[in-house]
Amino acid sequence: MLFLILRPFHFLLPRSIVQTRDSISNRKFIERKKSDIPNYALISTSKGQITVELYKDGSPDIVNEFIDFSQNGHFKGMHFTRVIKNFVIQGSKIENPEATEDWTSRGKHYSQLDTSLKHEAFMLGTSKAKHEGGGFDLFITTAPIPDLNDKINVFGRVIKGEDAVQEIEEVDTDDHYRPKTPVQINEVTLRHKT
């Protein structure tokens, strides 16, 4: 008689174990997938190597986009198209970068604002403005620039290679802050450890 009473509940135990196992599996998959995301990017430039720690928890969508572009070779051969001393260096493949030209040029004169941790020196970011060509600009700040909070999504910080950033910052530029001699990104390599 006891067997007949317990028989209908027979499937509940295995089902709940399977559901719990599936739930744990999904969580482990998500955690594993999150841990598979590289922590660092090594940006090899014609002026030296720059190591960047990626903020995968703070800016996961931007980091994923950066990783996709890196793996597809988007940054290979990208030139630094704008270099503004004590402000920012910009790498871009966009032929006509007027969208960022206005605020990068004006921003050079806005140094009287309060500083912000978000845009301190040696932060890596990309423009919040989406470009028609599906491109991905890279900006590295060379000084604290709080007025860029509404212009740039920060997704990393330079942890090694500040000297390479400063060497890029020191190149001669024309009146529009374009380097007179090309400075380019040779390659971006993604790493889990430095």
Automatic annotation (TrEMBL):
EC numbers: 5.2.1.8
Protein known as: Peptidyl-prolyl cis-trans isomerase
Catalyzed reactions per annotation: [protein]-peptidylproline (omega=180) = [protein]-peptidylproline (omega=0)
Function: PPIases accelerate the folding of proteins. It catalyzes the cis-trans isomerization of proline imidic peptide bonds in oligopeptides.
Keyword Flavoprotein belongs to the record: no
PROSITE patterns: CSA_PPIASE_2
UniProt KW keywords: Isomerase, Rotamase
Keyword Amino-acid biosynthesis: no
GO molecular function, one term: peptidyl-prolyl cis-trans isomerase activity
Record-annotated PPIase cyclophilin-type domain positions: 37-190
Gene3D superfamilies: Cyclophilin-like
Entry's family note: Belongs to the cyclophilin-type PPIase family.
InterPro entries documented for this protein: Cyclophilin-like_dom_sf, Cyclophilin-type_PPIase_dom
Domain of life according to the entry: Eukaryota
Matching PANTHER family: PEPTIDYL-PROLYL CIS-TRANS ISOMERASE CYP21-4, PEPTIDYL-PROLYL CIS-TRANS ISOMERASE CYP21-4-LIKE ISOFORM X1
